[in-house]
Amino acid sequence: MAESFLVDIAENVFRKLGSLALEEFSFAWALRSDLEKIKKILVVIKAVLFDAEQHQLRSQQIEVWLGMLKDVLYDAEDVVDEFECEALRRKVVESGNTTRKVRRFFSTSNPLAFRFTMGHKLKKIRERVAEIAALKSDFGLTERIFDRHVIHREREMTHSFVDASNVIGRDEDKENIIEMLLQSFDSENVSIIPVVGIGGLGKTTLAKLMFNDQRVISHFEQKLWVCVSEVIEIEKVIIKILSSASPGQKYMDLELDQLQKALRQALDGRKYLLILDDVWITTRSSRVASIMGTDSAYDLNDLPYQHCLSLFFRSAFKGEQEKQNPNLIRIGEEIVRKCKGIPLAVITLATLLYSVTDERDWEVIRDNEIWKLEQKGNDILPALRLSYEQLPSHLKRCFAYCSVFPKDYIFYDLELVYIWMAHGLVQSCNENQELEDVGFRYFKELCSRCFFQDFREDAGDVQCKMHDLMHDLASSVTQNESSAIISGSQQVSKNVRHLSFLYPELLPEDLPIPFQNLDHVRTISFLNERREGISSEVFIDACFLRFQCLRVADLAYSKFELLPRSIGNLKHLKYLSLWNNFFLKRLPNSICKLQSLQALILGGCDELEELPRDIKYMVNLRFLWITTKQKYLPTGGLGCLKSLRFLFITGCENLEYLFGDLHGLTNLRRLFIGGCDSLISLPQSIKFLTTLKILNIANCENLDLAIEEVEDNQHRSPFSLQKLEIINIPKLLGFPTWLIRGSINSLKVLKITNCDNLRELPEPLQNIATLEELLIYGCPMLNNERLQNISGMHLNSCPHLILIFYFIF
């Protein structure tokens, strides 16, 4: 199971071996012989891979062989990527507008040495691949062409708020717990009620039902919900409780006794309900629950079979579809019995089979060998493992990578897509298809199969979480590839590819000895639920110098003032996040050597004095998020980033003007401008971002959106937006027509909120027949009659339109 996405890795390497960049180098450097031999061997290996994956669960030798193959394929990918990095470097150096100084900046120290080194690396890969291929005959593997039929479908997103009408079979449990809660508060003592049950029974769902019940809401003065990690740290738990009770307050620097005092002050004399979610010791162990609880623990039992059936068929069938095929009903009943009353297992398999009408697909699930494997106490649920095995290979890799993130992490779709892209997990078979669109489709497919949950939308971005058991599943399939680091003395596999430092505040000043021999690391992450970042520049510098194959470096919440210059040596790096580094003052100009970089996150870097001067040479950048203290962004910098698709400019309190050559961003799809209180106006060139689809403008106190109409001598077309969102722009009096003039046949979503002085909406608004959602909120100066006219017109011409008007006076 650990190597179940090897087919995708092998195909990816095979594809890269035929890339144009490598073909040119192989011809010039006489490397064609080694390349052709590697490709021929890979063809032979691929032919038996499906058979090997089917047998690995029962053969340790095959599992070891697959592990060896995976390592050499990853190493081959590193070598091929190095050729592509060199090709990209040469493209920048040889571009017509570069000076001799720029050519020196990007030059390698010794081209002949590089050629010799790469030739030697390629030869080593060829020898290793041949050696591993020779071993396959020992296992009696047969060549198989296996094309698993996968239904690609998108289900409607769900939300973290639990609708009671969508929960089946837990009414009695909900009533019992509410009764225990209300009765327990007759006394003056603190009452603790543990809810106990195995993973996947729906303890969190049940708690949400109770939490949102009107009787509970009216009974308690304050309700708090806190997620607790597996390793309980009392200080961190108290900080979470305080943050829930008093949002916006800072508690990170307080000692334990100060935290306890603050907690007493926040809750003293008040009738409060506190939910501690994901406390594993209370949910998995009745004995420990009895120690912690002051009341009897509530044992959550398996969901009864009939309720499981209802849940399964409601999730697997469209409308009346279930009545049309009695054979599917019979097979479904047998599948549900195998789920043993665990709702998570039921709904995961149901969503896997959603809209599938071929009986053979249902029988594959019912008769799978996974059901026959011995199940121990902490093993992955067979239904979850089966759901994973039925994923197409490319989605397996995307899901498995999520084990790098800590449990209870809040995922953002855009962030996840760019991290997948950084590792080459997103592939487009059509050159006209944007990688981002493919990545979003991957994300939606995983969501539709219940690999993510608790969805909500924030400014157009989708947030979600992953169930703990799903996270365990992801970890199990990347057991030797990813490692969660708890201490600097921890031993890790020499072939580990992804490192997550869960406690960066406890790391030593320098890179510990166990990590100094790691040559293949592709990810370093310091993400954790406590938002504690790395503070040692020496440690980061050592990581940059040691881990030369890095694709992703997530340094969110780090606490250093200067990013080490060694960042410029990471030629493979494609994703760099310095999100919310509140101390960072400067970036080294060497960062501009990162031609492979696709995503650079500088949002929340409030002390960043300026962007690097040579940022225009980051030619591969597709996503840029900046916060800076600059008053203006100079022309000839950001405007040269023609690969840019997403640009977020937020929290730039001193920024008065954007760069004038904004129109140079010829592939920009989304522009987000927010929290820039000094921004006065937008440049004329913004109107001619012809590829722009989403425009968000929010919380800019002095921004005047009126742009003087100037004749365009170049006869450029205005942008045609699909979504326009304007929030809290006090100087917006009349709605500028330039914002929607070119979008009459494209605009689907228009949101205008908290614009206190807005008095008029544009006339063209009545002519937009493509609108699907129109939200106007907190605009007290708007004419009520005008809104009613627009409402009546759109309800008649746009049958699918959602209209939301809020009048606040």
Please provide a written account of the structure.
- By secondary structure, the chain is α/β, with parallel strands linked by helices.
- Helix content is 36%, strand content 11%.
- Strands 8-9-10-11-12-13-14-15-16-17-18-19-20-21 form a 14-stranded parallel beta sheet, sandwiched between helices.
- Helix 1 runs antiparallel to helix 3 (32-55), helix 7 crosses helix 8 (203-211) and helix 14 runs parallel beside helix 16.
- The relative contact order is 0.05.
- Residues 171-280 form the NB-ARC domain.
- This is Disease resistance protein RGA3.
- InterPro entries: LRR_dom_sf, LRR_R13L4/SHOC2-like, NB-ARC, P-loop_NTPase, RX-like_CC, Rx_N, WH-like_DNA-bd_sf, WHD_DRP.
- Pfam families: LRR_14, NB-ARC, Rx_N, WHD_DRP.
Instruction: Give a quick account of the main beta sheet: strands, pairing sense, barrel closure.
Output: 14 strands, parallel
Rg computed from alpha carbons, rounded to a whole number of angstroms: 28 Å
Oligomer: single chain
| Terminus-to-terminus distance | 61 Å
Helix content: 25-40%
* Number of DSSP E strands: 21
Q: Average the pLDDT over all residues and give the rounded result.
A: 85
Poorly predicted sequence stretches spanning 5 or more consecutive residues: 151-161
What best-fitting shape do the alpha-carbon axes yield?
A: globular
